[in-house]
Amino acid sequence: MTHQLLSIFCALLSSTITHAQAPLTAKCNDFNSSATISPRPGVNATLASDIAVALNFERSNWATGSVAEDLFYQVPSNASNATAGSLLKLEVHTNTSLYTIPPTTALSRFLFQTVDFNGSAQPASAYILWPYSPRTLADGTFPVVAFAHGTSGIYGEAAPSHIRNLWYHFITPFILALQGYVVVAPDYLGLGVTKDAAGKHISHPYLASTSHANDLFYSVQAAQSAFPKLSKQFVVLGHSQGGIAAWGAAQRQAETPVEGYLGSIAASPVGNLLDVFEGAGEPKSGAQFGNVIVDAIAGIYPDFNRETSLTTLGLQRLQVNQEIQGVQSVQLVLWPASDAALLVKDYWWRNDQFYAFNNVSSIGGKPIAGPMLVLQGDSDTAAPIQGTLSAINKTCTLYPNSQVELQVYQGVDHVPTMYASQQSWLRWIEDRFAGKAVKNTSCGSMGNSTSAMDYRFSQQQPSWYLEYRTQDYETA
Ligand SMILES: *[C@@H]1O[C@H](CO)[C@@H](O)[C@H](O)[C@H]1NC(C)=O
Ligand SMILES: *[C@@H]1O[C@H](CO)[C@@H](O)[C@H](O)[C@H]1NC(C)=O
Ligand SMILES: *[C@@H]1O[C@H](CO)[C@@H](O)[C@H](O)[C@H]1NC(C)=O
Ligand SMILES: *[C@@H]1O[C@H](CO)[C@@H](O)[C@H](O)[C@H]1NC(C)=O
Ligand SMILES: *[C@@H]1O[C@H](CO)[C@@H](O)[C@H](O)[C@H]1NC(C)=O
Ligand SMILES: *[C@@H]1O[C@H](CO)[C@@H](O)[C@H](O)[C@H]1NC(C)=O
Ligand SMILES: *[C@@H]1O[C@H](CO)[C@@H](O)[C@H](O)[C@H]1NC(C)=O
Ligand SMILES: *[C@@H]1O[C@H](CO)[C@@H](O)[C@H](O)[C@H]1NC(C)=O
Ligand SMILES: *[C@@H]1O[C@H](CO)[C@@H](O)[C@H](O)[C@H]1NC(C)=O
Ligand SMILES: *[C@@H]1O[C@H](CO)[C@@H](O)[C@H](O)[C@H]1NC(C)=O
Fold first, then answer.
1. Engineered SS bond to 264: which of 198, 246, 330, 403, CB 3.0-4.6 Å?
2. Which of 118, 202, 295 has most ligand 6 atoms within 8 Å of its beta carbon, as the pocket-test mutant?
3. Rounded to two decimals, what is the model's pTM?
């Protein structure tokens, strides 16, 4: 994946990703998908062809085919009355031959019962990435890190558990496993599993910290019941959408304490969406997320009309995507930053449903429990540092005893923050499992890191993506 594909938040990198003038072309000639898209209102021939290239690329990155066809994602018929945190289905040994996970690691997948935005029990999916040589705690169990991924899309096909590189690859889960942690990673509600036991559609409540936090705690509980070798203690780590999830986990822990929770690391966590959109002082603020946020809100509030927020062109584009269920790659082509202002109405977020959603789901200004480390690049074009500083400030003003520590990385953008901060998060996780207390510093105390070398000469964005190997000569 290029950095552009790692998160649609990266669509905000509008200065570097302008919509291609020339039609997109496929880089390889062996896509495992050959869908075509016909032009239609709102989608001219060039765009239709571009969407197809992106769609075939992302479909070629599926390890186990479409989630709509993979029986694993079908919920057992007796699941509807299962209590939250229960295991609904377990695939102990996932066949890794079509994944691009690191050599020596292993994969399991499972379905578990979680709780949605409105408090109803719902099924969801998750993966476990296993190290060859796990660390062990004093009681002989393997330490668990609950991992919350960044934006992959809002339809079922965006589930990391069916993507060859698990979506966040060496950004986080591969590193954790190679360092001896067992990674438990929910796909999030609505990604992977899209129908409940009764066949009713489940939508993804994109950016709802409360719902994502439920997914983290309940997937860990279900994984622990499936594998007694897993530690009761766990640390939460998330980036971007997952940074919101991790912060949400710390807020949830203040309300509903869970034994074994050791703390959260929230990287590039965006902040309170309303504050971020209003704070930008622009009528089209956040337009890049218009379709995904609008769809998430419509999934929660059935009386919400998408026309409130989207233009006719925006609705036409959304309709195409609903039809093809495009996610990460398609999003960047179908809803490019350069076009986004044409796709949403002015102040598209100013409606009662968004306000209600944001009230419940926002991070910052709410109590948190346990220690929290926040990681943030000061040159983050997708989740600007102001949103993070404001969320910390609100939290520390209202709850000054909160254990929040911030580490800033000068010059560093959104996804690269996870690379620049790798030692910090690994050390922090190690310290929590070792039972070390966090430093008793004031709430929101900040460290500010610089690059050892003049950062202008460093690799500032990923210049590669992971590709599946099909021929013996494909080495290095
Ligand atoms: C087709 O649509 C794209 C995306 O809106 C636009 O950039 C491009 O100029 C259009 N091409 C033509 C020939 O109208
Ligand atoms: C291509 O996709 C099909 C259907 O999803 C799947 O069965 C097959 O294993 C895939 N092949 C490769 C090389 O990914
Ligand atoms: C779930 O519980 C309800 C009421 O307790 C019962 O009517 C229903 O049959 C149960 N469903 C399943 C699938 O067990
Ligand atoms: C559903 O049925 C399976 C197989 O009979 C059983 O193992 C499982 O415990 C049941 N699950 C629930 C939630 O009742
Ligand atoms: C995994 O799937 C591949 C391709 O279908 C098959 O050749 C291989 O035997 C399977 N591996 C195991 C361990 O079952
Ligand atoms: C969720 O709750 C809201 C009120 O808080 C309600 O308007 C909405 O209909 C509920 N959605 C679903 C899917 O039950
Ligand atoms: C959101 O919360 C604020 C402050 O608690 C409250 O005044 C407002 O009515 C809430 N808005 C909605 C739509 O729930
Ligand atoms: C923090 O919030 C307070 C009031 O809520 C405000 O006066 C102060 O300027 C804020 N500080 C920063 C650094 O944003
Ligand atoms: C942290 O320090 C403050 C004052 O500096 C003190 O009041 C508080 O009790 C200390 N907390 C812990 C957990 O040691
Ligand atoms: C970090 O330090 C640099 C100076 O080295 C300063 O310009 C910058 O504002 C600091 N960042 C923050 C978030 O305070």
1. 246
2. 118
3. 0.93
